[in-house]
Amino acid sequence: ILGRREERLKSVADELGEDNCRYYVYDVTQADGTTQIYMQVEKRINRKITGLVQNAGIYIDKHPMDFLPEDYDSVMNVNLRAPMFMTIGFLKYCNMNQAAGNIVMITSNRGLFGDYGPYGVSKRGLIHYTQGIAREMIGTEIRVNAVAPGMTASEINEIDTSGDMYTSSAKGKRVLMPEEIAETVWFLLSDYSKCIHGAIIPCDEGDYLR
To answer: What is the pLDDT of residues 149-175, one digit of tens each?
Structure first.
């Protein structure tokens, strides 16, 4: 697992156990399209990397007229620029190793319908990019798909999983658990989904069908 905050990474790695999880401190906004980060991680875990889950994201909520240019830049850098250049580096890494690869983007159902903020715009862009890369990778050993969660109990939404999971903002009236999203991601990373390529899978109980 990669992320900016070592304390948080270490906590997750300790919970899962060293045999199951290693961590590497890295800010994905520093991704430059090279293989450097993948080579470093490969050395750390002593095995080739075959899958990439693009899960970093930030959300800024404001009135449509209150957004600032720096809000736009911050969101786009994390939610769109970073996965684009992480993907470019991973494709080069797979090509260098003549190896198969599997990429899963974490977008959002807010990228499936109109949105006025940079978050929804960035997630729509990520969906567009996912489909574009997938099209280019047809016939290769690289698969690219995306998961589009709805309201999920996560840090970005400031929802405690031990609390009330009711929400009036979703048609299903409940907040999704992160495990539900993770199971879908795991499916896309597995050989059970080897015929799926270029798909955007909504994980929101149909809330995107507005």
So the answer is: 988 887 776 776 676 777 777 777 888
